[in-house]
Design a protein that fits this description.
Layout (H helix, E strand, L loop, with lengths): L19 E6 L2 E6 H5 L6 H4 L2 E6 L3 E2 L7 E2 L8 E3 L1 E5 L4 E6 L3 E13 L5 E9 L2 E2 L5 E5 L6 E11 L4 E7 L5 E3 L14 E7 L2
Antiparallel strand pairs: 1-2, 3-6, 3-16, 4-15, 5-14, 7-8, 8-14, 9-13, 9-15, 9-16, 10-11, 10-12, 10-14
Length: 200
Amino acid sequence: MAVVQIPNLPAAIALSGTEQLEIVQAGVSCRTTTQAVANLPSTPLTALKTYGSFISSVTQTNTGPTAVRLMYFDTTPVASSGVTLASNGTNLSRMTVAYTGVYNIMFSAQIITSSGGSQSAFIWLRINGSNVAVSNTEFSIAKNNANLVAAWNWMVPMTAGQYVEIAWESADANLTLVHSASPTYGPAIPSVIATINAVG
Protein backbone atom coordinates (compact mmCIF):
# COMPACT_ATOMS: atom_id res chain seq x y z
CA MET A 1 0.00 0.00 0.00
CA ALA A 2 1.44 3.31 -1.05
CA VAL A 3 2.15 5.88 1.62
CA VAL A 4 -0.05 8.97 1.18
CA GLN A 5 0.59 12.18 3.10
CA ILE A 6 -2.32 13.44 5.20
CA PRO A 7 -2.89 16.59 3.07
CA ASN A 8 -3.35 14.33 0.03
CA LEU A 9 -6.01 12.10 1.63
CA PRO A 10 -9.67 12.64 0.67
CA ALA A 11 -11.65 14.78 3.11
CA ALA A 12 -13.88 12.88 5.53
CA ILE A 13 -17.63 13.32 5.41
CA ALA A 14 -19.70 13.91 8.58
CA LEU A 15 -18.37 11.68 11.37
CA SER A 16 -20.65 9.01 12.85
CA GLY A 17 -18.46 8.08 15.81
CA THR A 18 -17.64 4.61 14.49
CA GLU A 19 -14.55 5.67 12.54
CA GLN A 20 -11.36 3.88 13.60
CA LEU A 21 -8.31 5.74 14.90
CA GLU A 22 -4.88 4.50 15.85
CA ILE A 23 -3.57 5.48 19.26
CA VAL A 24 -0.62 4.47 21.43
CA GLN A 25 -1.15 3.26 25.01
CA ALA A 26 1.86 2.33 27.14
CA GLY A 27 3.98 2.12 24.00
CA VAL A 28 1.58 -0.24 22.19
CA SER A 29 -0.42 0.69 19.09
CA CYS A 30 -4.18 0.26 19.63
CA ARG A 31 -7.38 1.24 17.91
CA THR A 32 -10.27 3.35 19.16
CA THR A 33 -13.19 5.29 17.69
CA THR A 34 -13.88 8.95 17.14
CA GLN A 35 -16.81 8.64 19.58
CA ALA A 36 -14.50 7.39 22.35
CA VAL A 37 -12.29 10.43 21.80
CA ALA A 38 -15.34 12.73 21.88
CA ASN A 39 -16.40 11.17 25.19
CA LEU A 40 -13.17 12.09 26.95
CA PRO A 41 -13.81 14.40 29.94
CA SER A 42 -12.63 17.94 29.50
CA THR A 43 -12.47 21.12 31.54
CA PRO A 44 -14.93 23.70 30.20
CA LEU A 45 -13.23 26.84 28.96
CA THR A 46 -15.50 28.83 31.26
CA ALA A 47 -14.03 26.98 34.26
CA LEU A 48 -10.55 28.16 33.36
CA LYS A 49 -11.87 31.73 33.21
CA THR A 50 -13.19 31.53 36.77
CA TYR A 51 -11.92 34.29 39.07
CA GLY A 52 -12.94 36.58 41.89
CA SER A 53 -11.46 39.64 43.56
CA PHE A 54 -12.96 40.86 46.84
CA ILE A 55 -12.21 43.54 49.44
CA SER A 56 -13.41 44.62 52.86
CA SER A 57 -13.88 48.34 53.42
CA VAL A 58 -14.56 48.00 57.16
CA THR A 59 -12.29 47.36 60.13
CA GLN A 60 -12.76 43.81 61.42
CA THR A 61 -12.34 43.53 65.17
CA ASN A 62 -11.43 40.60 67.37
CA THR A 63 -14.62 40.77 69.44
CA GLY A 64 -14.17 37.20 70.66
CA PRO A 65 -10.54 36.57 71.59
CA THR A 66 -9.59 32.89 71.23
CA ALA A 67 -12.69 32.38 69.05
CA VAL A 68 -12.32 31.66 65.33
CA ARG A 69 -13.03 34.72 63.17
CA LEU A 70 -13.75 34.69 59.43
CA MET A 71 -12.49 37.42 57.10
CA TYR A 72 -15.45 38.92 55.28
CA PHE A 73 -16.02 41.15 52.28
CA ASP A 74 -18.13 43.92 50.76
CA THR A 75 -21.33 43.09 48.92
CA THR A 76 -19.96 44.12 45.51
CA PRO A 77 -16.84 42.30 44.28
CA VAL A 78 -14.02 44.15 42.53
CA ALA A 79 -14.28 41.59 39.72
CA SER A 80 -15.90 38.17 39.51
CA SER A 81 -16.75 35.43 37.04
CA GLY A 82 -17.82 32.04 38.32
CA VAL A 83 -17.11 32.96 41.96
CA THR A 84 -19.84 34.38 44.21
CA LEU A 85 -20.00 35.56 47.80
CA ALA A 86 -22.31 33.93 50.32
CA SER A 87 -23.10 34.66 53.95
CA ASN A 88 -22.01 32.53 56.88
CA GLY A 89 -25.13 33.74 58.66
CA THR A 90 -23.48 36.96 59.80
CA ASN A 91 -21.11 38.25 57.09
CA LEU A 92 -20.12 37.57 53.49
CA SER A 93 -17.15 35.28 54.09
CA ARG A 94 -17.86 32.39 51.70
CA MET A 95 -16.26 32.53 48.24
CA THR A 96 -18.20 29.90 46.28
CA VAL A 97 -16.94 28.40 43.01
CA ALA A 98 -19.22 27.36 40.15
CA TYR A 99 -16.81 24.85 38.57
CA THR A 100 -14.64 21.95 39.70
CA GLY A 101 -10.93 22.69 39.43
CA VAL A 102 -7.71 23.65 41.18
CA TYR A 103 -7.81 27.18 42.60
CA ASN A 104 -5.13 29.62 43.67
CA ILE A 105 -6.40 31.60 46.67
CA MET A 106 -4.46 34.71 47.70
CA PHE A 107 -5.06 37.32 50.35
CA SER A 108 -3.56 40.27 52.19
CA ALA A 109 -4.78 41.71 55.48
CA GLN A 110 -3.60 44.90 57.18
CA ILE A 111 -3.28 44.08 60.87
CA ILE A 112 -2.68 46.32 63.87
CA THR A 113 -2.82 45.97 67.66
CA SER A 114 -2.96 48.57 70.42
CA SER A 115 -1.67 46.09 72.97
CA GLY A 116 1.89 46.32 74.19
CA GLY A 117 4.54 43.66 73.61
CA SER A 118 4.56 40.92 71.01
CA GLN A 119 1.12 39.64 69.99
CA SER A 120 0.47 36.47 67.98
CA ALA A 121 -2.24 35.55 65.52
CA PHE A 122 -3.05 32.59 63.27
CA ILE A 123 -4.52 32.52 59.75
CA TRP A 124 -5.66 29.41 57.88
CA LEU A 125 -7.99 28.16 55.17
CA ARG A 126 -11.38 26.44 55.37
CA ILE A 127 -13.38 24.66 52.68
CA ASN A 128 -17.10 24.13 53.35
CA GLY A 129 -16.54 24.91 57.02
CA SER A 130 -13.73 22.39 57.54
CA ASN A 131 -10.11 23.35 58.18
CA VAL A 132 -7.73 22.60 55.31
CA ALA A 133 -4.89 20.45 56.61
CA VAL A 134 -1.48 22.12 56.97
CA SER A 135 -2.81 25.53 55.88
CA ASN A 136 -2.16 27.46 59.12
CA THR A 137 0.46 30.16 59.74
CA GLU A 138 1.38 31.88 63.00
CA PHE A 139 2.78 35.40 62.98
CA SER A 140 3.56 38.09 65.55
CA ILE A 141 3.29 41.87 65.79
CA ALA A 142 6.14 43.08 67.94
CA LYS A 143 5.36 46.80 68.12
CA ASN A 144 2.37 48.65 69.59
CA ASN A 145 0.22 50.37 66.90
CA ALA A 146 2.48 49.19 64.08
CA ASN A 147 0.86 47.96 60.87
CA LEU A 148 1.69 44.48 59.63
CA VAL A 149 0.53 43.03 56.32
CA ALA A 150 -0.12 39.30 56.34
CA ALA A 151 -0.13 37.98 52.75
CA TRP A 152 0.28 34.53 51.24
CA ASN A 153 -1.57 32.03 49.09
CA TRP A 154 -2.86 28.47 48.95
CA MET A 155 -3.51 26.20 45.96
CA VAL A 156 -6.36 23.74 46.57
CA PRO A 157 -8.71 21.48 44.58
CA MET A 158 -12.39 22.39 44.88
CA THR A 159 -15.57 20.94 43.44
CA ALA A 160 -18.46 22.91 41.96
CA GLY A 161 -20.56 24.51 44.70
CA GLN A 162 -17.90 24.39 47.40
CA TYR A 163 -16.94 27.56 49.26
CA VAL A 164 -13.66 28.68 50.78
CA GLU A 165 -13.15 30.95 53.80
CA ILE A 166 -10.11 32.57 55.41
CA ALA A 167 -10.11 32.04 59.17
CA TRP A 168 -8.10 33.87 61.83
CA GLU A 169 -7.71 33.73 65.59
CA SER A 170 -5.79 35.61 68.27
CA ALA A 171 -5.84 35.85 72.04
CA ASP A 172 -5.20 39.60 71.66
CA ALA A 173 -8.55 41.39 72.05
CA ASN A 174 -7.01 44.58 70.58
CA LEU A 175 -5.85 43.00 67.33
CA THR A 176 -7.84 44.25 64.32
CA LEU A 177 -7.86 43.98 60.55
CA VAL A 178 -7.86 47.69 59.88
CA HIS A 179 -9.44 49.67 57.04
CA SER A 180 -8.19 53.18 56.30
CA ALA A 181 -10.48 55.44 54.28
CA SER A 182 -8.02 58.37 54.11
CA PRO A 183 -4.40 57.25 54.45
CA THR A 184 -1.55 59.75 54.26
CA TYR A 185 -0.84 58.76 50.66
CA GLY A 186 -2.83 57.14 47.90
CA PRO A 187 -6.35 55.67 47.83
CA ALA A 188 -8.24 53.93 50.61
CA ILE A 189 -6.72 50.82 52.19
CA PRO A 190 -8.99 47.76 52.51
CA SER A 191 -8.70 45.71 55.68
CA VAL A 192 -8.67 42.55 53.54
CA ILE A 193 -8.03 41.82 49.87
CA ALA A 194 -8.71 38.32 48.53
CA THR A 195 -8.46 36.87 45.06
CA ILE A 196 -9.30 33.42 43.77
CA ASN A 197 -8.75 32.04 40.29
CA ALA A 198 -8.85 28.67 38.56
CA VAL A 199 -5.46 27.39 37.46
CA GLY A 200 -6.42 23.96 36.19
